[in-house]
Amino acid sequence: MSDTVGGLAREGLWSNNPGLVQLLGLCPLLAVSNTVVNALGLGLATILVLMLSNTTVSLIRHGVRREIRIPVFVLVIASFVTVVELSMNAWFHELFLILGIFIPLIVTNCAILGRAEAYASRNPPGLAALDGLMMGLGFAGVLVALGAFREVLGQGTLFSQAELLLGSAASGLELTVIPGYDGFLLAALPPGAFIGLGLLLALKNLIDQRRPGTHTMAQPAEAPQSG
Known about the structure:
It is a single chain. This protein is mainly alpha-helical. The chain has one domain. It is built from ten helices and two strands; from the N terminus they run αααααααβαβαα. Helix 3 runs antiparallel to helix 4, helix 3 (36-60) runs antiparallel to helix 7 and helix 6 (110-118) packs antiparallel against helix 7 (125-155). The longest helix is centred in the middle third of the chain and has 31 residues, at 125-155.
């Protein structure tokens, strides 16, 4: 059991990370990662949807006919995304307005549907929930790392507007990393997101290359050869 748990943790956080290896969910990842708080808000929402949808899919896996499993899985995911969206609108309204369309777009995140089909539909609820947690943490980790990189370069701060997610008591968490900094506009714009993600990918591949017993680069699975 411990080997299974450790394997799921390694898969989600590193070796099969949705953002750095599978390269899924890039639209929201690149769009809202201009600050740590925005990235963390979307990351937490994604973790919650992944865990709940994985668990539910695992629970109903024996009662869903194979021919209709994908529409059923999408319906399950959409239901939980709606719950998360309405909850954020009620309790984190200002952050909800900033994240905008990217909260409902979690429904179309291929990483969530992919885990429901590839893992949750074939494993018991406990392992399915753990898989959702680890994959969600891996995705959120990339979001937060990219958000921190862009916020520091773009504004010279960290945890700007933390009160939007953590309440008014968190307003003092904002750190001025570079005093008197006028900001670097490119880091706050979409091209800065692509550059930042590319640097994160390069860093991961460099670490993998230097670790013994690992591939030099994260490679997608090869298609089966005919004949």
